[in-house]
Amino acid sequence: MHRKYAVIDLETTGPKYEQGDRIFQFGCTLITDHKIVEHITLNINPEQSIPFEIQLLTGVTNADVEKAPYFDEVAMNIYNLLEGRTLVAHNVGFDGPFIITALKEALGIELEVPFIDTVQLAQICYPSAISYRLSDLTNMLKIPHTQVHTAGSDARATAQLFLILQEKIRSFSKVTLEQLVEFSNELIGDTGAIFKDAFSIAKGKDSNNYLIENGFVVSKKVFEEKSFPTTSKVSALNAYSKLVENQFLKDNDSQRKIIKKILETLEEEEPIHFIEAPPGSGKTYAYLLAALEKATNQNPIWIVTSNLLLQQQLYEDSVLPIVSALKIKNPIVSIKGQRNYIDLEAFSYKISQLKNDKSPRVSLSVMGLVVWITETETGDLSECNQVLYQSSLWKDICVKENSKKESLYWTKAVQSVQKSNIVVTNHAFLIHYASTMSYQTKPIVLLDEVQQFEHSLEQYGTVSIKFSNLFLLQQLWSDYYLNSMTNFSKDEEHLSRTINRKLLEICDLYETWFEELNRGNYLKESIVFTNEEWIETIHHEMIRAFTKSIIQLMNYLQENSEKTSLFENSIQLLQEMKDSLLKFQESNHSYFVIERKDQYGQEMIEVLRVDSVTHVFNHFKKTIKKLIGISATIPTFTPLFYDLKAQENLTIMDSKVNSHAHHIFIPNDLVSVTAASSNQYHEQIAYCIQQIYERNGGRMLVLMHSIEALMAVEELMVNYCKRNHIELLAQKGSQLGRKIQRRFQEKSDSILLGVYSFWEGFDSGGVSINSLVITKLPFPNPVTTHQQIVQLEMKEQNRSYFAQYSIKMMLLQLYQGLGRFSRPTQKNAEIWILDVRASISKYSDKVKNIFPESAVVIEKTFKKCLNSARIKNKD
């Protein structure tokens, strides 16, 4: 089927025609029979000044359009050009309505043409692309695009992109196209017609060349057997010399010493040892080389970092390059938890449900996933661009935690782990799965980011009781009774009344408990009890009463299972509650927590049992052969590592690291975070970031200490960054981390707001950062559940929480944050600490003691700090 297309791009004085914005440049590329036949570019006098920031963006000045024709003069030509063609644009939701409105006002005629959006087509056809900006797509696909943000060049590039997208869509199998067509009506305008046209052509094609799994075409590479070579022939130190010789690494005596120490420790009988190596000392390549030498079938080695972002960074930025540089077949596999992998059976079932309940947002996600499945080798959902992410959809289509059933990608990942001598993963996966996956032998663990391991152990040892199931069940039976009572038999009516009564009794028990907790503002956020305290409380008895009532209700339902259609749903919800209630009461090595939570817009109680991390660790260590913790900082002061006597099993490596003369600014006149309101504090931070960026520009990393503060500051920064064409990036969740990191590496003018992972092992990928802004000294929040438990553990150890934990943890995390500037590729930069406590508190000297010796520390008013920075930059 051959259509005629007009691919357009507009440059306008602003985004809204109805508010007076006008076109000052029109670009159009015509396509006929899949070939570009003509290009048109027009400058247009908008009869108003082009805003300065738009002149900078487009390169078009007021002088350029001063003598150009007015829109009225060229409107009919444009109308004739577009009439009878399908209108295509990159973000047609803007260009399409804008040009139609302009033509109608000028000519009194409404242009009626179909619309196609290349943004949506790209999101579906390239589901793993980092970005869908036109400039990024043209760069990825190697499309010539020299004058970005000029209408003629953008239209030409969009036309070439459109032809590539069409070609890719026509290459899809009949099976895939049929699945895409099912959801294509939800796309913008006539965008879905591209898939329908391709499907009509593909109907007669043979699909025997494709591999089908659960109704989806999958990549043939999924079924290719991967061989895992032994690594015994790799000598770590010889490989290191080879990497230095090939200029992959710079020769570093400290790095050689770390390699030797790890090799020695791997040979020793000592089951637990810790090695502290400063940031920038090269520990990552050191432990990778040691693993390549020592890992065997009898002694598999697991390399474990704290979270998914750092795991992906480690594998992509260190493992793959070093294996390639050594020219050896990759013996290392990376694995994540089950929830990170798509379950094709679950996705197929979800699609069958969605066919009668489509929405534009979910339809786009489904279509992108269908295409992604044809290409992915791993089934790891994090490969998909964030634009496809839908939390409820992801939850339904991922492999369920602790699921025993076969699932293509998860099963393949587990099989790879069982065959490989070296595995890369994260703390949570190690703890959850080390004891459940079958091995020929227990693994040796090289543990990075040791300071986060204690928190991972605590999360694993936490059991929660969420009472939301109870109210879902009550609603289910209440609706059933009201909707079906006229059709009930006597037995059904009796059963329904009895179940509703029993549920009401349990809910009344919960409500009484909740009211008691609320009396006198007893439950503000959370309450933590030791095991001994818990047993003496009424809460302990309430949990036992709930357990008894739930079991009685389940027994009654099972006795009457044939009398109701709600049996399966009811039993499933009750079983979940019963399991959590029984598991909750199993341990004697626990703390107990009652928290106030918002669920479904309603305040509810959540009850947690948190096992002692020492107890969890003692169980965990039985599943491994040896643990070697390797980090820039080993937290020997925390309750777990204090119990483990980590200080006695610690080697501190002397290392010469990057000694650039960074300037560290500590403004001493800012409003203290403890004195300011949250709004005032966030406004102050946003103002400081803007002022600092105007002095330095380039890449700025802003380390924040809470997601709430990050989102507030991001909102205050958006307009500033738009005006100045600065890429504003913000870490809002694990789905985004790695892609944000790559974006930061690519863009020379960018501000990255980071929390959590970005304090630790974040690596800027070989590019230098111009400014680091630390908004607040990273003290742990003492009112969180985790910290309340730490306080109880410290008390049991007769140690001071503030002096022996809180300050030390703040200094450790601050040291980690500053460690981003110890990389070999990092140049001299500015570091700003926007917390007056770093200058005026009793512990300010301790803060300054962790600064690099070569750093120049400047403590002045914020204005004088800025002036000092300006003088430094001129020099």
TrEMBL record:
GO terms for molecular function: 3'-5' exonuclease activity; ATP binding; DNA binding; DNA-directed DNA polymerase activity; helicase activity; hydrolase activity, acting on acid anhydrides, in phosphorus-containing anhydrides. Coiled coil: none annotated. Residues 241-498 form the Helicase ATP-binding domain. InterPro entries: ATP-dep_Helicase_C, DinG, DnaQ, Helic_SF1/SF2_ATP-bd_DinG/Rad3, Helicase/UvrB_N, P-loop_NTPase, Ribonucl_H, RNaseH-like_sf. Its EC number is 3.1.-.-. GO terms for cellular component: cytosol. It is an enzyme of class 3 (hydrolase). It holds the Pfam family RNase_T. GO terms for biological process: DNA replication proofreading. Keywords: ATP-binding, DNA replication, DNA-directed DNA polymerase, Exonuclease, Helicase, Hydrolase, Nuclease, Nucleotide-binding, Nucleotidyltransferase, Transferase. 3'-5' exonuclease. Belongs to the helicase family. DinG subfamily. Type 2 sub-subfamily. This is 3'-5' exonuclease DinG. It comes from Granulicatella adiacens ATCC 49175.
